[in-house]
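Aim 2 progress update. The chain analyzed this quarter is reproduced below.
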Amino acid sequence: MDDLDEVLGTVGPRLRALREHRGATLADVAGVTGISVSTLSRLESALRRPTLELLLPLARFHEVTIDELVDVPAGDDPRVAPHPTVRHGVTYVPLSRRGEGPHAYRLEYPPRTPAEVGEPRVHEGYEWLYVLSGTLRLVLGGRSLDLVAGEAAEFDTRVPHWLGNVSDSPVEVLALYGPQGERMHVRARPRRSA
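Predicted structure tokens:
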């Protein structure tokens, strides 16, 4: 029972950190999840024990798995359980466990995803990419490059960049992201218009 209390005791601080990282208020979370502000506050302060009914909508809101919220001990199985995330048509398949340092993903871009070259973006971090199959378009600092199977690229993400598949065939890519890059690519949600 002590182990269970210890694991559940980490949920509140994790929820608070996720919410603060997004710049969301308790009222923002309550509005989307239907969980009252007072319940959310008690959860974050570890004054209320998390239940499945509370964790499911919170995991959806934060775009994480329940395992990530609860930080279930991995045991001694070294395999990484795939929990794909789809964002803007691109499938992100995690290839590393959560923790400090870079995270590895296999990216799957369907044909013509996104449909057209978008506005290059900047954010903190560093990226490393390796094309497994297909042709990936990388726009980096105003320069357009087509990376084919077997080619790699690495760059500082403070340089304006855009990635996509402009061909009629799917593209598979291995990517390493630091924590800032992972949040930008895998977890960030577009801001809701007021």
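Confidence is low (pLDDT under 50) at residues 187-194. The radius of gyration is 19 Å. These observations will guide the mutagenesis experiments scheduled for the next reporting period.
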